Amino acid sequence: MATKAPKNDIDETRVRVSHPKEVAVGVPAVLHALQIAHEQMGVVRSVQTLMRVNQKEGFDCPGCAWPEEDKRHVAEFCENGAKAVAEEATLRRVGATFFAEHSIDELRGHDDWWLGQQGRLTQPMILEEGATHYVPVEWDAALRLVADHIAAIDDPDETVFYTSGRTSNEAAFLYQLLVRGIGTNNLPDCSNMCHESSGSALTETIGIGKGTVSLEDIHQADLLIVAGQNPGTNHPRMLSALEKAKQRGARVIAVNPLPEAGLLKFENPQTARGVAFGGTTIADRFVQIRSGGDQGLFQAIGKHLLEAEEQEGGVIDRNFVEAFTSGFDAYRQAMAEVTWAELVDATGIQEATLREIGDEVLASKSTIVCWAMGLTQHKHSVPTLRDVVNVLLLQGNIGRTGAGVCPVRGHSNVQGDRTVGIYEKPSADFLDALDREFAFSAPRKHGFDTVEAIRAMRDGRVKFFMGMGGNFVSATPDTAVVEAAMSRVDLTVHVSTKLNRSHVVTGRRAIILPTLGRTDRDRRGDTEQRVTVEDSMGAVHASRGRLAPPSNDLVSEVAIVARLCGHLFDVAPSPRVAPASHAGDPERALPEHGAIENEGRASRAASNAPHAEWTALETDYSRIRSHIERVIPGFEDFESRIEKGRTLLLPNGPRDERRFATADGMARFTANPLEYPVIPEGRLLLQTLRSHDQYNTTIYGKDDRYRGISDGRRVVLVNADDLVDLGFDEGDIIDLVSEWRGSDGATEERRAEKFRLVAYSTPRGNAAAYYPETNVLVPLDSVADVSGTPTSKAVIVRLERRAD
To answer: Are residues 758 and 628 in the same domain?
Structure first.
């Protein structure tokens, strides 16, 4: 049983504020990682576990998706990676006794940190309608209940299946097959809330929704622009790659509203220089841009390059532009029409500085632009990222060494999940291949993304919700709306390793299906199984857990989904001859399409079911990889290419051969009107962000060491001059009230109570606070154009003095 942590009794007076750090990692990071590991795992288990993280015969870190080099360090993990591993490999347990002691009402009174600190879930639990407590349920009974509920729903579009980024390729592939077998594409995922804007912009302009660089490209770059990103907290191992690039002569420009320690100086704890000689300065230039001003910055760079081309020549890569791109003339005209005064207003940066940045790009022989959610969670995020691509195209910085686009993904397999089919708008080619492989007809109608799924639940149009990992309630915007929406669903099901808020804000009935984690040994049949994941740069590798599971009763995500497929689709099919492409493989002799005899589970779900040996897939994951190989291009010889720790690098047209799968087959310049937030008088523009003791919605502790915040999370960082102008003092306790003009023209307000004001280095008019505490302020209908991503970096708020 976990040690009991305190309730979320809000006490802002306990918060301590000190000067922000100007250096990241170093010995303090090592000591803090070891402290957390010891608290959660003990000494022996910590050593056994941490030495296997990101090793070729070990397991992939359940934290971020930053790639590893082929030659691994013996300690191939960062501080926050160690925290993520410790949280999963903890010795704390949550079983039937815990739920008997804690009512659902009591659990709702605890915050995300307390819930997460209780430990690993060990057995299936059910909360019946009107019940006060979860109670145990046997595995088969739980899965049959889920399957029966799905089968009884007349319209498959009344079901929603969410996926987090920690799910393996094998589990995700089966999961999307289950959902499409049911008859819907309602497959929202965490990408919808994070990097959907990246995928939308990149697919349109270069024909692939992924980055185009490798780790070696980072090392070989002449210039790296790191925009809207905090690698020191969110993917610290990136700092090692930036350090190597710096040692080879690269320059780094950091672009962010907040100064982040990791981009100022890095003390690498694995080198003598990092430990004893002051570390490495990362950013040669820090550009403190206004939140939402990044499109203006990249338009300024493009405008400067085009003006230099007109005056001097030799700036634009004419051969590349003429051979591989379209739309150049329209882009050039748009940049001629935008004024420097507008670009200064958008960015908050003087023209001279903007031109200096342009000169650095002009002088670079190979440029990479890296970004994360600081660029993706604005209304105009897709145009912003189109303009990032425009700048790179001007100098031919796509498809050559040391150059390209680098969207840095968050969760460890969020990119892989999308690759293997977790997407509400699948391509026709993918669905056609799926149909051929599994002898059924997958639905073609697009499904709900995350925001659309919440709207449908809010409106009573969803009867069933299933979450494969993650913490949907805490991860999504507009918390009060989401909680009310979940309560309208008949049955909510969560496949989880640990307790989180989504387990206590439920539908009328709720089921928790505990599962193995990345660190756990997964024995199916007589064999220890391995799964695969894809990193931020399109490399796929195997992961094999090594620890004894927290309970003998736990099963894997793959097993859970395979058993559900068996309950729904395994209905004594009539035999048929395998297609010619499967000749000689008796296991591929599948039933005729549509020739299913309904035996017992007479349901709509089985009338057009995918056909597979579900039990065989559960006990041998290599069979799932064989299916992936036949459905998805790039996975040829999948099994052999991941043997002995080898990495399968997926094909990437723009990177590999300057091939662009766009509408016209060319990399596309785009002409985008300049957009940036306009902040009303007396208001601030709030961005939500993570603390250093946090990964997504998982809270490791209540400190933010690099920003100088201790013992609390309900703080809001505001420019000191803004505090004076608004009539507040540092340390005041206030409410944050967001203001949003709805579709009917009326102003809607949302409130987050009891936050402490902290004077901080932010641009005037900008503020920052941690999520999930401030997700309540993000309107559900405030989303990015094209991508539908919530605008969590652009919330108009006012500070309201509390009466008490």
So the answer is: no
